[in-house]
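Hello,

Our lab assistant flagged a job as stuck in the queue for most of the afternoon. It eventually completed. Since we weren't sure the result was trustworthy after the delay, we are filing this so someone can double-check. Below is the sequence as submitted and the structure that was eventually returned. Let us know if re-running is recommended.
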Amino acid sequence: MGNPRGDGYPVDGEGPVHPVELAPFAIGATTVTVRQFAAFTEATGYRTIAEREGWSFVFAGLLPDRFPPTRGVAAAPWWRQVFGADWRHPEGPQSDVSRREDHPVVHVSWDDAQAFCAWAGVRLPTEAEWEYAARGGTQDTPFWWGKELTPGGKHAMNVWQGQFPLKNTAADGYRGTAPADAFAPNPFGLFNVSGNVWEWCADWFDAGYYAVSPRENPTGPADGTARVMRGGSYLCHRSYCNRYRIDARSSNTLDSTAGNIGFRVVVPGER
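-- returned structure --
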């Protein structure tokens, strides 16, 4: 595990590179989709944090031109507090997911993802499991296909194209989320391990953890204030958030929700 190239962010603790051994596990080929999450809520009546609180964060560039002014995040004003935004209404009450059932579910907190897992008999991946699966048997490169952002001149993932945050050319075909199985899968059969949506992992986050991580089946620190997220999202760009690399790390608080956060699940053992 870890980043041997030095092209990451020191604050994220992407090193040192260290060996890890994992017990067998099976992991979802895609992130959990809107359709799958809808089955969960219909069966249980579960309401997400965004639904209970009445709002979530939406990227300003996805809001209609005449959308009423809303409060932004001081350090990232392109994130807007939108009342009525949730997994059913990704850009607010004027939007819906009727044509996005095969897209990743978003506006789900870590706690929401845990509730889905408890219902489905699965769990979130550890950070180590996620990175192993995302690499697809490769090593050392930022993407499972190699070093190039657009291998052979073709787009291989859903990330920001253009000048962030002012102009997104959508040259990869998408301004927001893409279907969960868009683009080619990695050699292990996983789709969109780079870009599209951030994926929650089970571990608490600690920038210094790699220095003390056990070799066998690491599960992260014993406690913390934020959980690991992996994979980057459709808003990542090398000028702003160069975290769509498969060895990149980030984190967020357990109750955080936004239009670019989803999750993938695992089960122990071979399937």
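-- support follow-up --
The delay was a queue issue, not a problem with the job. The result is valid. The chain has one domain: 1-43+114-271. The domain at 1-43+114-271 is CATH 3.90.1580.10 (paralog of FGE (formylglycine-generating enzyme)).
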